[in-house]
Amino acid sequence: EAQVTQNPRYLITVTGKKLTVTCSQNMNHEYMSWYRQDPGLGLRQIYYSMNVEVTDKGDVPEGYKVSRKEKRNFPLILESPSPNQTSLYFCASSSQGASTGELFFGEGSRLTVL
Amino acid sequence: AQSVTQPDIHITVSEGASLELRCNYSYGATPYLFWYVQSPGQGLQLLLKYFSGDTLVQGIKGFEAEFKRSQSSFNLRKPSVHWSDAAEYFCAVGLYNFNKFYFGSGTKLNVKP
Fold this sequence. Notes:
The structure holds two protein chains of two kinds.
Chain A: E1 4-7, E2 10-13, E3 19-25, E4 31-38, E5 42-51, E6 54-57, E7 65-66, E8 76-78, E9 87-94, E10 104-105, E11 109-113
Parallel strand pairs in A: 2-11
Antiparallel strand pairs in A: 1-3, 3-8, 4-5, 4-9, 5-6, 7-8, 9-10, 9-11
Chain B: E1 3-5, E2 10-14, E3 19-21, E4 24-26, E5 32-38, E6 44-50, E7 56-58, E8 64-68, E9 73-78, E10 87-95, E11 100-103, E12 107-112
Parallel strand pairs in B: 2-12
Antiparallel strand pairs in B: 1-4, 3-9, 5-6, 5-10, 7-8, 8-9, 10-11, 10-12
């Protein structure tokens, strides 16, 4: 089954404790991206990757890092989480080669930073 | 500034009634336009998209949307709403060869029996 898998789905952590949210897709998509969803703000793009070893900032990259060492994986790293990073995070992938623009989303990871 | 506006935060309609969700965007050129739906606890699913050509596009689940360049709008419609349509709907714009996406703040749809 074609899917985007995120882990963990739920996480409560404390300020300053490094964490990684993993994202994996099994559709051989070149493009992957991360979003955060906050009430009243919709989804905002954090980082995106057009292919292996190619990443770029979205609109809200501060406090986040990403890497793309393999095509299927695109982890989101919070080196020193702060309470304002409490949010619902979504990973998405797309086959840009087809220029369809359709994003396939994971089920989301709800992060709480105390 | 680039933006996608969904002016209605919540909408309630009766089952069987028609639906229109509004979306306006502000970009210099005609962007690629999308509508996504998010069911509770789920990720987003594409309903439909507009790239060029016919300004009325059909999507899944009986939804359609009309692009109006003069109004910078891309409103979503459905002639008869079903209880299963209750969800949150997001309008989105894709730019720069689909590398950057901008989402509206969403419209939550409630369906009354």
